[in-house]
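Subject: design request, 458 residues
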């Protein structure tokens, strides 16, 4: 990471975000499943700062509640009077030995490597992150002197036609010694076209005080793009997802279509994994080696071991799938489903808060909840563990080598002993001992020559 000590990060997030047309504050809109400002906080933390300040305004309480992070120092900017005014709200937190880094809550894809470069350059005073844009419209322009040194930043609305032609623009992200910044902030005024206190005015002050403004550029323009509307949000999302897909492929994963996979969190993985289209990964997912994942799966906070096959349309949430297991199609593994090695979980099977032992099979149309299932158990189609009595949940225990016939209800709490057999269509309400056959079905009656009713004519 970086060797910058005494870092003070200020994240500006007080803007209203009116163009989102939303009751949700802009910085809480999700990108890859996380709030925009959370991405900025994540990058900030990787720099090991002494303090992270977030300047909030409109809907700020909602932002605080949602982010709910005791490491953040929340600072209210009651009225939005400009970026300089926003940073000024933090002035009591700016300590003499610190380096201040200004970030934006709505610029989510900034990279730690870029910030590290910027901070290294700022050690002698001041460093700006700039970018050259084919269409610089709307941005503050970087005005340089004949020697190529930065003189000032001029906002679009205050710019002459000549200045408007400059393509190098201010990203807004900058690093500056905190004591210097504090001093310059005190001298800002709002005598400009927008009657705002511009943070960018400190650049001219620094130059006047004899400082050289260093500049650096991000590797990619996307790092410094902000979100002002939902179109821009979608564009950044696509860029981010493409980057994730590229990383996965570089790491040994075959993607049927790199434009049809979503990573909303972190995916840790081995090699020789093949992922078909439209799968969504959420939270923290890990996948071992030699794994196949079919189309249209949703996999959240789960662990998938080596040699697993997840067939299409399966949903996994907080689960663990043991080596050599096969899941789906159309399987739903809910929180607490733990599958041992070589298990088979088939179509229209729901498993919740249950352990399924080595080699056991639950292949069709079944609900297993709050259960302990031993080794080599076979659970027939249409079996239901009736775990809920309307008030409380109860456990079902199915020991090794049990065979449960189809269309069975196991009314919990209930225990089925080793090697026991349950006849199809049974409703089991009391424990079954080892090696027993339990069957509750009504005896079959056959009536010879039965005539079905015929339709009467009217
Ligand atoms: C600002 C820069 C401009 C730069 C551009 C990059 C200034 C004066 N201008 O312009 O040089 O090219 O960003 O996108 O700094 N904010 C507050 N409180 C305020 C005002 C703004 O917290 O009172 C926050 C906003 O939430 C936003 C950020 O600061 O995250 C930038 O504000 P915005 O109004 O978008 O600045 P621009 O006019 O675009
Ligand atoms: Ca802006």
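Subject: RE: design request

Done. Sequence follows.
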């Amino acid at each position: 990471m970086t060797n910058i000590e005494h870092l003070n990060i200020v994240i500006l997030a007080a803007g209203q975000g009116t163009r989102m047309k939303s009751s949700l504050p802009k910085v809480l809109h999700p990108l890859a499943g996380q709030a925009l400002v959370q991405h900025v906080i994540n990058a900030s933390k990787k720099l090991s700062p002494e303090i992270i300040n977030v300047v909030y305004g409109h809907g700020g309480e909602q932002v605080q509640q949602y982010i709910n992070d005791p490491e953040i120092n929340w600072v209210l900017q009651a009225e939005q009077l400009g970026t300089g005014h926003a940073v000024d709200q933090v002035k009591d937190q700016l300590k003499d030995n610190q380096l201040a880094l200004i970030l934006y809550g709505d610029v989510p894809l900034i990279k730690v490597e870029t910030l590290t470069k910027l901070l290294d350059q700022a050690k002698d005073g001041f460093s700006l992150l700039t970018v050259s844009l084919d269409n610089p419209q709307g941005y503050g322009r970087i005005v340089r002197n004949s020697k190529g040194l930065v003189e000032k930043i001029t906002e679009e609305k205050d710019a002459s036609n000549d200045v408007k032609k400059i393509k190098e623009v201010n990203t807004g992200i900058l690093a500056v010694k905190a004591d210097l910044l504090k001093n310059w902030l005190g001298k800002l005024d709002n005598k400009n076209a927008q009657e705002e206190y511009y943070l960018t005015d400190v650049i001219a002050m620094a130059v006047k005080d004899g400082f050289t403004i260093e500049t650096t550029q991000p590797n990619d323009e996307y790092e410094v793009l902000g979100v002002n509307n939902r179109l821009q949000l979608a564009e950044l999302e696509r860029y981010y997802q493409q980057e994730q897909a590229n990383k996965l492929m570089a790491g040994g994963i075959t993607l049927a279509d790199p434009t049809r996979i979503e990573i909303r969190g972190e995916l840790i993985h081995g090699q020789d994994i093949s992922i078909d289209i439209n799968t969504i990964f959420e939270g923290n997912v890990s996948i071992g080696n030699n794994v196949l994942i079919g189309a249209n799966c949703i996999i959240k906070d789960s662990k998938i071991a080596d040699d697993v096959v997840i067939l299409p349309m399966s949903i996994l949430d907080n689960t663990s799938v043991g080596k050599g297991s096969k899941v789906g199609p159309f399987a739903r593994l809910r929180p607490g489903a733990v599958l041992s090695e070589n298990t088979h979980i088939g179509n229209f099977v729901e498993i919740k808060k249950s352990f399924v032992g080595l080699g056991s099979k639950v292949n069709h149309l079944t609900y297993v909840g709050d259960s302990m299932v031993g080794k080599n158990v076979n659970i027939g189609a249409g079996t239901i563990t009736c775990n809920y009595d309307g008030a409380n949940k109860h456990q079902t225990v199915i020991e090794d080598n049990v065979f449960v016939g189809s269309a069975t209800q196991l009314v919990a709490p209930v225990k089925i002993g080793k090697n026991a057999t349950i006849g199809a269509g049974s409703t089991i309400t009391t424990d079954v001992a080892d090696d027993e056959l339990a069957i509750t079905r009504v005896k079959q009656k056959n009536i010879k020559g039965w005539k079905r009713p015929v339709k009467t004519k009217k």
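Residues 230-250 form the longest helix (21 residues).
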